[in-house]
Design brief:
The protein has 547 residues and is of the alpha+beta class. It has 11 helices and 29 strands.
Length: 547
């Protein structure tokens, strides 16, 4: 994923850290503060560069390392939070990310680091060749797909420093991609020790979960479109030119932003600006759902959290519907900055364009631009839970009478063949037969869609509290691991606390203990230490055995 837009970085020299000329020039040419007195992004970056100079030792920075800015948050009171990635001898460091927190006057306050291991390697020359790493990753992809015949297999290794798994070591991060027997994409990222060839970790690379227009799931909805002559395009100029196109049941094959083949996204057009029929027989009906889901997700992040678009830069993403053949999935892809929806097989899933699915998958984009939670272990469960939690809040925000807010994930897309009423259940995650209600030392060994249950359960308890109740016509009964009674503080406060924790305090390696700390810090920032909200966060984590 390209981060060119963020690279106002700093290089460590023998005399310390010096901000790049581009950074300082940008800061000098930019106003120091907004009209309301808050520091600008450029000012925050300049302040953070000074903090790196003064606190290099505490941040583990040496002359062998470079840093680059990934994200900047400036609070209403002027407090600044600048998130960095780091490299070692120009190699990306997995777990090298950190967040510098600055007071309103720009002075250093504190920092959160993904890992604290000192980075010092005897050599950055691998003993395992790149082709060998590629072969190992392809074999891992085959093994993960249970021997299914895969085709068009490709793999591209990247040499990195792995600081996520104990003592930092040289490693190959290889993304292996291919297509299954139906032509749908499969992908797996494999982390291999570059000296021994041993597999360190592996995870799925496709993060899954599964305008007036007549939609499949949300009734008749308003749409902003673009007129061209006598025709209208399903492109929204009020939301960064987000648009929806037809993938024509084709698939693509991309690797680290390089596409060997790409499914189309042929823009939907219409003669009268009334889209779809609400039936799957009309291909534009699914497009209505997708565009509507994008709109509501955009509006939720902007109006509730002040985030202007998925990347926070005002630029819109795009949607592709009718992807693949009977494809039981939907996914966000950073390489195209796009959202893609399959049609489902009709037995277990219908078209995967429901509102909470859109909110879920697009939130993966927000996570990748902020905490970038690694998609394996406990951090992977938190990645998935973040999408479930904020995607659910998108559904509540939309207040759609046909698809009312609830704490069920994907309830609109499941069919009778699935055997359950939803993909996941936030009040008691184990109702899906796989997810964890409570934390245990083995929860990180679960698939990330099931280890996410701990955070999903926490979020439900924090919003609604424990025990039996009916909300919006749905019955819930949420237990606690310690037999306590938890009193909820409401969805709005849940969303604000989780979003702040994600964007200000969490890092790529955050686990459940770290998530407790991050959300407590967020609650303290928003409502004060010892406040009702702060105590509720602590009680809800304890109720899911995160202490």
């Amino acid at each position: 994923m390209s981060r060119t837009r963020h690279h106002r970085g700093s290089r460590l020299a023998t005399a310390g850290i010096a901000a790049t000329t581009a950074t300082l020039l940008a800061a000098a040419l930019s106003p120091a503060a907004h009209a309301d007195g808050r520091p600008t992004r450029a000012t925050a970056i300049e302040n953070a560069a000074s903090a790196l100079l003064a606190h290099a030792t505490g941040l583990g920075l040496t002359s062998t390392q470079d840093t680059s800015v990934r994200d900047v948050i400036v609070d209403k009171d002027g407090t600044q939070h600048v998130r960095y990635d780091r490299t070692y001898h120009q190699l990306p460091v997995l777990g090298g990310d950190f967040v510098v927190h600055l007071a309103p006057n720009g002075t250093y306050s504190s920092a959160d680091r993904a890992t604290r291991s000192a980075i010092s390697l005897t050599s950055i020359t691998p003993k395992v060749s790149a082709p060998k790493a590629a072969d190992l990753a392809v074999n891992a992809l085959r093994a993960a797909n249970l021997g299914e015949t895969l085709r068009q297999l490709k793999a591209k290794p990247q040499l990195v420093v792995d600081a996520l798994h104990g003592t930092p070591k040289l490693a190959w991060r290889t993304n292996a991609v291919g297509k299954d027997s139906l032509g749908n994409p499969v992908a797996r990222t494999v982390l291999t020790d570059a000296l021994t060839g041993a597999q360190i970790d592996a995870w799925d690379s496709i993060e899954t979960a599964t305008g007036d227009g007549q939609s499949l799931y949300s009734g008749t909805v308003p749409l902003e479109t673009t007129q061209s002559g006598s025709s209208y395009g399903l492109k929204d100029p009020t939301r960064g030119n987000t648009y929806t196109g037809d993938a024509e049941n084709k698939t693509d094959l991309c690797l680290f932003g390089i596409c060997f083949s790409r499914a189309p996204a042929t823009l939907y057009t219409d003669a009268d600006n009334h889209w779809g029929t609400g039936a799957t027989s009309d291909r534009s009906s699914a497009a209505v759902d997708a565009q509507y889901g994008t709109n509501e997700t955009w509006d939720y992040y902007k109006n509730v959290h002040g985030r202007n678009g998925i990347a926070g830069d005002g630029k819109g993403s795009y949607n592709r519907v009718h992807y693949g053949n009977s494809y039981n999935n939907a996914f966000w892809d950073d390489s195209c900055f796009c959202m893609t929806y399959g049609d489902g097989d009709g037995t277990t899933f219908g078209p995967l364009v429901a509102l909470d699915v859109a909110g879920h998958e697009m939130t993966h984009g927000v996570t990748s631009k902020t905490a970038a939670l690694t998609y394996s272990g406990e951090s992977g469960g938190l990645n998935e839970a973040t999408s479930d939690i904020l995607g659910t809040l998108v559904e509540w925000y939309a207040n759609n009478p046909t698809d009312k807010g609830d704490y069920l994930i994907g309830e609109k897309i499941v069919k009778s063949g699935f055997g359950k009423a939803a993909l996941r259940f936030m009040d008691k995650p184990s109702k899906d037969g796989n997810s964890a209600d409570y934390w245990s030392s083995s929860v990180g060994n679960l698939d990330v869609h099931y280890s996410s249950g701990v955070a999903n359960h926490f979020a439900y308890l924090l919003a609604e509290g424990s025990g039996a109740k009916t909300i919006n016509g749905v019955s819930y009964d949420s237990p606690t691991s310690n037999g306590s009674t938890v009193t909820g503080i409401g969805r709005d406060k849940l969303g604000k606390i989780w979003y702040r924790a994600l964007t200000v305090y969490m890092t790529s390696s955050t686990n459940y203990a770290g998530a407790r700390t991050a959300t407590l810090n967020a609650a303290k920032d928003l409502y004060g230490a010892g406040s009702t909200e702060y105590n509720a966060v602590a009680a809800a984590w304890s109720a899911v055995n995160v202490n």
